Amino acid sequence: MKLKPESKPKLTQPSPTKLTYKHISEYRARVKFAGGYLPFRSARQFSSFGKATSEQLDLFSQRHEYFSELERKFGLVLSFLSNVSNVKTQFPLLKVKKTLEVAVSLNLMHPRYEPSASVADHNKGFQAAIMTTDFLFDLVDSSTGEVKTVACSLKYEKDIVPYDGNDRVVERTQDKLRIEKYYWEELKGVEFQIITSAFWMFDKNLVENLTCARVHRNLDIPPVLKVSLLAHFIKTLNYGKQRKLRLVDVIANLSMETSLPEGRLYAAFWHFVWTKKLRVDLFKPLAGGGYVFEGEDFAWQL
Asked: Read out DSSP for 200-261?
């Protein structure tokens, strides 16, 4: 691994200790016991101003750990995208010696931490932390059909743009991201992206609409009624016509036509949206009953 040396003095890197390798061994044992991937850290162990949350959509799906509202919203949209699968959160870079080599080559300080005072003497002091990547997932290129693995780190704009004397904190964050990027792209051949709060996935209407839709993802509708309701929705929505209707009016009209409660019809509408039976513009304020426009099945293109 040869890179152009930095002009600043060579940094002294933290070292891994027996405690570091103990954490790795314990994690691998948990994964083996679970029979599949587990996030390296959980929301119970970490709190970003009270915004850390866990999520598991059903008994057989992957558990996700989100350490911020940004991560939760990103996970929500990823779970809806047709060309995204195999999503993992808090993915550990367990080869600490490799991440340390990258840090040395870039002459950037490797992330480190100091264990609590209760550890044995030989584990005391600053030591190399096990780095994690916020999201790792597979993405199908809709134009070529090629499956790519993508690693993402999520950051608020304020975390990567210096302001009001936070230059040192931002510098450490940027150093960590540079190590992470080099690890994934140069050592693993995996595309690495830094996603900020300005990214299209965090559109307010999109997040609110998908939040409503996902609640009803597993709605149980009898098959005959499902076919009938879907046909009613498509007819009432007036796709392709100039006159648009508000969702609140669509539901009211269908309630009168079918004699079904409005609450049940709202649930059916969002179920059809989540299962992509109804394609509506999710960037419009539908959650508040606004105007319904026809949409397309959108996918994330790199």
From this structure: GGG-HHHHHHHHHHHHTTT----HHHHHHHHHHHHHHTTTTSS---BHHHHHHHHHHHH---
